[in-house]
Amino acid sequence: MGSVPHPIMFSDDDPVLARVRRTALALPGATEAIAHGRPTFRCPKMFGMYGGGVKGGVRHDQSLIVVADPAEREALLADTRFFLPAYVGPYGWVGLCLDDATDWDEVGELLDAGFRQVAPKRAVAELDAK
Predict the structure, then answer these.
(1) Where on the tree of life does the source sit, at the highest rank (predicted)?
(2) What is the pLDDT of residues 65-112, one digit of tens each?
(3) Does residue 8 lie within any of the structural domains?
């Protein structure tokens, strides 16, 4: 028996996703792929995901899941806007709920930091040259 495809858990016309997508895909060599029913951003490893939830708990469909800078992770998780995402949280990832009060500069910084954790040196060098 083959595996059952994961249900799609986002809407392509979500304006919040559109902003996340623009920011993530502006990074050198970044691509988007659907995984586990959600948009993920990669170079070539995953550095961000749109939407997620807390293990056994609340789903945050309008959120950004990123690989946190290890030096900032504890401070981020102490902020009530952030959460420990299911499955990837134990591996250094954090989630940020996105809403009308979202600081989009902060979203860009989080995606940048996540990108730098996983991207090849040449992609980081290209980013630094911008």
Answers:
(1) Bacteria
(2) 999 999 999 999 999 999 999 989 999 999 999 999 999 999 999 999
(3) no
- How far apart CA 109 and CA 3 sit, in angstroms, is 36
* pLDDT recorded at residue 5: 75
What CATH number does the domain containing 119 carry? 3.90.1150.30
Residue 89 inside a domain? The answer is yes
Tell me how crowded residue 44 is: count the other CB atoms within 10 A of its CB: 13
- Give, in order, the Cα–Cα distances in Å from 18 to each of 39, 115, 119: 11, 18, 22
Long-range contacts made by residues 31-37, C-beta under 8 angstroms, separation at least 24?
34/8, 35/6, 36/6, 37/6, 37/7, 37/8, 37/9, 37/10
| pLDDT, position 116 | 96
